[in-house]
Amino acid sequence: MATRIRSSSKRCAVVGGSGFLGRHLVEKLVEKGYSVSVFDIRQSYELPGVTFHQGDLCNKQDLLVALRDVSLVFHCASPAPSSDDQALFQRVNVEGTRTVIQACQEAGVQKLVLTSSASVVFEGTDIKNGEEDLPYAKKPIDYYTQTKIQQEKLVLQACNKEKGFLTVAIRPHGIFGPRDPQLVPILVDTARRGKMKFIIGDGSNLVDFTFVENVVHGHVLAAEYLKPDSPLCGKAYHITNDEPIRFWDFMSRVLVGLGYDAPRYHLPYSLVYGLALLLWLLTLLLRPLITIKPTFTPMRVALAGTHHYYSCARAKHDMGYKPLVSLHEAIAQTVASYPDLRRGA
Ligand SMILES: NC(=O)C1=CN([C@@H]2O[C@H](COP(=O)(O)OP(=O)(O)OC[C@H]3O[C@@H](n4cnc5c(N)ncnc54)[C@H](O)[C@@H]3O)[C@@H](O)[C@H]2O)C=CC1
Ligand SMILES: CC(C)=CCC[C@@H](C)[C@H]1CC[C@H]2C3=C(CC[C@]12C)[C@@]1(C)CCC(=O)C[C@@H]1CC3
Asked: What biological-process GO terms show up in the record (predicted)?
């Protein structure tokens, strides 16, 4: 490891700081008096007190410039799961994370907080109140998740108290909130195309959806509690709203809040899953000729039709985590933040 440069504990960098979670995190850090550098392949906004560095996290030289005099790094960059680009996931999430770790070590960064995902243990079958010590999925639901597993292992294994480099991973689940480009927009798009009429299974499956501000709170706590003598070193922590909700109730509350009808008709889970699998095989076969992006992928059907909620007891115990915003309030704030997605808008 290179010679350490003295850096202020209030100087931090957010890799992926132009993204949905990253930007909310940057805003909170600024509010808390941190001086923040954003490192991202794109710049999506400007904020007083924030320095932007545009670059690819796979390029160590680019990173080193952004990490100068920084003591704390948040790594929340990733290609979008929907990109479905295996080579890109491998390059950015695995090789790129290796580069982020090396750059942190060379720049004398003391703490690295990774945004992982609770899905690293999910194989498409029920998980009820899952704890962090569940084994990593042997058959992850998609290639994105497979590389999130490899990424988390790399970051946690890099934790080295002797060398003064501490790491921790936050595993959120189903992040939603204002400016989210995925969950609510996909849902509304599906509703506008008339495809949100059906409930997959009996509709009783419980899932965690986590308000972005609570996820940010978990990251900030992790950074502040990560010390050489703390239990956080080299560990993963679930951060959720701690209020599992029926998947279809959540979808319905958002849809109805935006003026759309809630789904009503039930379809058997195995039927929909089987059809999604067939469709997926068909898209693979036809890929050389045409590109089809089906709404119902096996992964989405599994996410929509199984229980998958996680205990955040470890985060409560080790870093005093408690969600700041209830699910009820979070849904209300989220719905109000999307006037353009309302029915008829
Ligand atoms: N959105 C969700 O429900 C969940 C997200 N996560 C994780 O949270 C993190 C943040 O997710 P979101 O904010 O939703 O995603 P996002 O797509 O809004 O943000 C990711 C950011 O990473 C940047 N990025 C991608 N490749 C890069 C590269 N090569 N170099 C530099 N920057 C690059 C993008 O430009 C983007 O600004 C990701 O690591 C994701 O895996 C985990 C669980 C759930
Ligand atoms: C809990 C969790 C990990 C959420 C991640 C977000 C997305 C995977 C969901 C956002 C909108 C959801 C959605 C469906 C599946 C999961 C999402 C993409 C469906 C495709 C499920 C099948 C349907 O009937 C339509 C749904 C549209 C919205």
From this structure: cholesterol biosynthetic process
* pLDDT by position in tens, the chain (length 345): 333 444 456 899 999 999 999 999 999 999 999 999 999 999 999 999 899 999 999 999 999 999 999 999 999 999 998 887 899 999 999 999 999 999 999 999 999 999 999 999 999 999 999 999 999 999 998 899 999 999 999 999 999 999 999 999 999 999 999 999 999 999 999 999 998 999 999 999 999 999 999 999 999 999 999 999 999 999 999 999 999 999 999 999 999 999 999 999 999 999 999 999 999 899 888 888 888 778 788 888 999 999 999 999 999 999 999 999 999 999 999 999 999 999 998
**Residue owning tokens 């990774």:** 114
Per-domain residue ranges of the chain: 11-176+210-244+309-325
Residues lining ligand 1, Cβ inside 6 A: 16, 18-22, 40-42, 56-58, 76-80, 92, 96, 115, 117, 148, 172, 174-175, 182
CA of 173 to the centre of ligand 2 (A): 13
How far apart are the CA of 302 and the centre of ligand 2, in A?
A: 9
* Domain at 11-176+210-244+309-325: CATH code: 3.40.50.720
How many Cβ atoms from other residues are within 10 Å of residue 321's Cβ?
Answer: 24
* Reported pTM: 0.94
